[in-house]
Amino acid sequence: MALRSLSGSVAASLLLASPASAQWTYISLHPLGAAQSRAIATTDTQQTGWAEYGGDQHAGIWSGTPASFIDLNPVIATSSFGHATTGLQQAGFVIVGGVQVASLWTGTAASWTDINPLGATSSYVLAMSGLQKGGWAVFGGVRAPGVWNGITSTWQDLSPPDNTEGLVRDTNGTQQVGYSSGAALLLRAFLWDGTAASGVNLHPAALGGIASIAYATIGTMQAGSAAFPPTGLFNAGTWTGTAASWVNLNPPGASDSQAIAMTDSPAGPVQAGYATFAGFPRAGVWYGTAASWIDLHSVLPPALYSSSETRYIFSAGSTLYVAGFAYNYVLARDEAILWVSAPECSDGSDNDSDGRVDHPADPGCSAADDSSEKGVPISALGWLTCDDGVDNDGDGLVDYPADPGCREPLSFTENPPCNNWWDDDQDGYTDYPADPECATGWDTVEHVAGAQCGIGYELGLVMPLLWWLYERRRERARR
Question: Is 402 contained in some domain?
């Protein structure tokens, strides 16, 4: 079950890919005494997955610390796996007599419930949202994608007419995603709205795709991966309801990648998964583009962990929780990991480089849980133009302190008279530093105070000399 061991010849390669943002931290959830462990899903308060004891995997839950692990493995089962949690209920499967059985728990091993559909020879829950669970069940030797609905967990088969193998990988309660293989045994990403008839084939065949899987949905967007020639390796990507909407998220320099989870956040949809660099998978997240990749593996101590993957992401306001695992090459084992991001306005960093850190010091933060230190609207006054992350005056410089037109983050314009490319006082000199009446780029006038209707700044400088010459000529005339 281990990801990959580390050889000395590749130790230097662990620094590949962009560093993670300063606000990300991690927690090792590996329970004491476990041979291996993986975190597969999370909320803001609870994680689920499994830990290995005596050669068998045991489903379990954590509440943010290694010591909090609760073993959910029922007495009847040899092994069990947690795959989803709402914080109150957990879902996954157990193995009884060598058969996989879809299962539910409510926090204890004794609460285990068998939800294997009537007539199914085996089954597996992979996702849960509210009262709907998603996964697969085998009927007549064929693995069918489907959901369990309601308190009674009634099975609903979502198989397309030509399905030879499929599963539901995620549900948001009304929409499901996964894959279905047809007669050609091709993996095809699929999207459903609760019935087999609603199925939409998301496979990007027109773009050259040779296989695809949809792993996550937030309703308006789906995330997953697709394989393309010539390598045949999978690339992470997103869809917005159609095969033609595919967007490739494979980060620059990565050989392959998988987007396995997604959540909606105040900053927009966030995808989680991993990308492979120099043969090693590295956990990370995206914000909808390949260039937005954030390498979460770089948060982990390089002296311990050689590779990592994420399995789930959860948003609680501006805070993100990412569940996954990393390979500890010192102890030769997978370890459950929880990554947590603090909002920019409480992460201890000057994210917008304006010299102000977090709430309440940074004027761009209206509260400690704000996701950005920029662009906070002020009622009746509009935007903080010098702290909104936009080049408002088109000079190629953005906000305080980069734009010379900004005196401070609270300034309301990036182009005051001394930084607006205009000779406002018609003296033949434009802006700072050319106009001597501009002491700085953020000066609001191109003339000296009190001289607006007078003789002009330049003439004022020579007046004492002119007066001296005038008095000297008068003195000579008296002689």
Answer: no
Residue bearing tokens 């829950």: 125
Mind listing the pLDDT tens digit for each residue in 249-276? 999 999 999 999 999 998 899 999 999 9
Tokens 């995997």 identify what position?
Answer: 57
Q: What's the domain count of the chain?
A: 1
Quote the tokens at residue 32: 């004491």
Quickly tell me which residue has 């993100």 as its tokens: 320
Residue 180, phi then psi, degrees to nearest 5: -140, 135
**pTM score > 0.85 for this model?**
no
In DSSP notation, 219-253 reads SS-EEEEEE-TTT--EEEEEESSSGGG-EE-PPTT
Question: Which CATH number is 60's domain given?
Answer: 2.130.10.150
* Containing structural domain, residue 249: 8-346
Q: How far apart are CA 374 and CA 431, in angstroms?
A: 27
Q: Where are the beta strands (DSSP E) in 116-186?
A: 122-129, 132-139, 142-149, 154-157, 165-171, 176-181
Residue 254 CB contacts under 8 Å (≥ 6 apart), including other chains: 17, 275, 276, 277, 293
pLDDT top residue among 117 and 454:
117
Element (H, E) at 189: strand 187-192
Please indicate, yes or no, if residue 369 is contained in any of the structural domains. no
- Using CA atoms, how far apart are residues 41 and 321, in angstroms rounded to an integer? 10
pLDDT at 382 (0 to 100): 46
Query: Do the domain assignments include residue 281?
Result: yes
Domain assignment of residue 119, yes or no: yes
Find which of 249-253, 341-345, 457-461 is predicted with most confidence, using mean pLDDT: 249-253
Q: Are 401 and 350 in contact (CB under 8 A)?
A: no
How confident is the model over 185-202, as pLDDT tens digits? 789 999 999 999 999 999
Burial of 277 (0-12, 13-18, 19+ CB in 10 A): buried
Contacts 24+ apart (CB under 8 A), 240-246: 241/191, 241/200, 242/200, 242/202, 243/201, 243/202, 243/203, 243/204, 243/205, 243/206, 244/204, 244/206, 244/207, 246/202, 246/204, 246/207, 246/209
- Element holding 476 (H helix, E strand): helix 457-478
In angstroms, rounded to a whole number, what is the distance separating the alpha carbons of residues 384 and 396?
Answer: 18
Q: Is 16 exposed, middle or buried (0-12, 13-18, 19+ CB in 10 A)?
A: middle
Rg, the chain, Cα only: 31
Q: Any bridge partners for residue 225, and if so which?
A: 213, 236
Place of tokens 């393309």: 228
Q: Mean pLDDT of all residues in the chain?
A: 86
